[in-house]
Structures are given as C-alpha cells and as structure tokens.
Amino acid sequence: MLETLTDIRVTTLKTYGIEARLKERMSDPDEIEAAIRKEAAQWARGFDANSLIILANALRGFDVTPQFSTIKAKVLFVLSRTDQLFPPEIAPGVMKGLKAAHVDADYFLLDSDYGHSASGLDAHKWAPRLRAFMESLN
User: In the Cβ-directed half-sphere of 42, how many Cα atoms lie within 13 Å?
Assistant: First the structure.
C-alpha cells in the first residue's frame, strides 16, 4: 500500500510542477527523481488512503457551475499556463459561465513553469494584478 501511495504522490507532484522547482537547484535527472520519490514517500507514510477515494469521488461528481449565480463578490480567476489540473483551456468556459450568472469576474493567466503550484511559487508574478484587483474593491 505504501508503494502505491508513493507512486500516486509522485505523479501528483509532477503534475503540480515539482520538476521545474527542483531543476533550479539540481541538474541530474536521477537526483531529481530521487528527491521527488523521497518527498512522495514522506507524504505517503502520513496519508490515509481512504481519503483518496473521497477526493476522487468529489472530483468526479462536483460541478460548481450551477452555483455561480450565488456568487456575490467580485472574482479574480487565476490559472497557470502549465497547470495540468486546471489548464488554461477551461478559462473561456468558466468566464462565460460567470458572465452568464452576472458575476463581475476578471481572468489572469499566470506565466509559470510551476504547474498547479504556480500561484504560491510565482506569487510575485501575479501580485501586481492581485493588488490592482484588491484596490478596485474599494
């Protein structure tokens, strides 16, 4: 079970963009892979496998689109160019749905190699847009 969880986490971490982050300080592909496996194994030792079942079911069955009309706040929708979980290709549909629900929404494409982790690791790249968005709320 531990090996399976480790393998799942390796795949997840790669989807999140860990390789781009590690390449900044490591050049040997085997060293990078070992670092990813080490981090994945640490996570796997403390994770309840049953949670993956719950998360997978939630991802497959949850559609927030019908709830767009309940949004009362202005929205800043940020996606990373390299995010594989929420790829930028979904932006037009999401923005169209928000507009149809009369939600005041703005979209920002974050130019980052960090995949799903981009919003934190490259926060400086979208901080000015966030600042402008927050200032527009006043």
Answer: 6
